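Hello forum,

I keep getting stuck at the same step: I have a sequence, I want structure tokens, and every attempt I make locally crashes halfway through. Rather than fight my setup again tonight, could one of you with a working pipeline run this one for me? It's a single chain of 254 residues.
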Amino acid sequence: MLAKPRPLDRIVDAEAGIAAEAAGLDALLGHLKPIEIIERAARESFRGEVAAVSSFGADSAVLLHMISEIDRSTPVIFLDTGKHFEETLGYRDALVADFGLTDIRVINPDETALERVDPTGQLNETDTDACCNVRKVEPLARGVEPFRAWFTGRKRFQASTRAALPVFEAVGSRIRINPLAHWTTSDQADYMRAHALRENPLVAYGYLSIGCFPCTQPVQPGEDARSGRWAGHAKTECGIHLSGLEKSLTDASL
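Reply #2:
Ran it on my machine without issues. Output:
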């Protein structure tokens, strides 16, 4: 008599299937233009099951403009960490109006979790990873839970940690789509000019990657665009693009 599959076995099998699906989509569609990737994903591969995640930071306008060209009702998830620059919040509202986006989903940190791990609101001063986990990783896990896939604006040129970034990648039982992965800084700038897209006002002050205000500073000449994030720390990612998100999608304790 054959043993019944254990729950963990089923999860592993399902995730292996998603990894194979992501690899197949990357091979089939990864070479297309970004707007074609978005269109194929939104209208065919993940119709009605895909969202976008946006920080409304330095590079956000391009992806959101492309999405609006395909479907303005695509859900856009924004993580309101409680630590954003006022300029970012204003920029968010301006881009939503510019592009006519109709489904902005603002996800906040869990209040009970904040009271437990960051009662003073100063956790970033002692443990940046824990701060990002409670303010970004767990909220994003809740935000993408209803969907099979989501778009990001990540690009290979942004940092060495993204140099091999695929267009389609598996995250547990979901697929993350990076339509702009192979774009250069020139591609980005050309698109912004061609479509007269507004910039986050902080870019003019040297903020080339914009996160929460306590952990973001202007980029110095010659440094990569993300060098102003967590300056002085070994940290280069907040965690929403790392394996912690996958765990948070299934672990209610995070």
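Residues 247-254 have pLDDT under 50 and may be disordered. If your local run keeps crashing, start a new thread with the error log.
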